[in-house]
Inverse folding.
């Protein structure tokens, strides 16, 4: 019969937890995303549509600069709940903002906040999406 001291059992259990706990709860990009600065996206009115800038880098029309590709990279590197702050030029239409929201949804980014800037006063106002309701003169 083998007897083990309480100290040996405690050390063994702590060591086993150190080995197996990370396997049960792996570290994810979402854990990092909660504690990192937000990704900054700008939507600016351009002569031929909307110009997107992600963390001070302009997006384009090539395979590796397309806005969906760039947002997918954000999701891959920082996780789906990575904070994304979207700064919107007031000349951008609501349709273009919705289109961007759809693109971000395709990239599986779930933590976006939208702000419309007012350059004259130096302030910005947050846009918040509410639930959809049927078209009506008396929406409830």
């Amino acid at each position: 019969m083998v007897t083990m001291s309480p100290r040996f059992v405690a050390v063994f259990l702590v060591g086993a937890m150190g080995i197996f706990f990370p396997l049960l709860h792996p570290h994810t990009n979402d854990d990092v995303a909660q504690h990192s600065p937000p990704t900054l996206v700008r939507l600016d009115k351009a002569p031929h549509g909307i110009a997107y800038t992600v963390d001070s880098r302009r997006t384009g029309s090539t395979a590796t600069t397309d806005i969906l590709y760039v947002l997918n990279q954000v999701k891959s590197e920082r996780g789906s709940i990575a904070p994304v702050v979207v700064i919107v030029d007031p000349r951008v239409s609501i349709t273009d903002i919705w289109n961007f929201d759809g693109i971000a949804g395709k990239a599986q980014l779930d933590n976006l906040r939208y702000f419309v800037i007012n350059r004259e006063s130096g302030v910005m106002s947050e846009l918040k999406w509410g639930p959809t309701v049927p078209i009506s003169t008396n929406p409830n």
Remarks:
- The two ends are 75 Å apart (CA to CA).
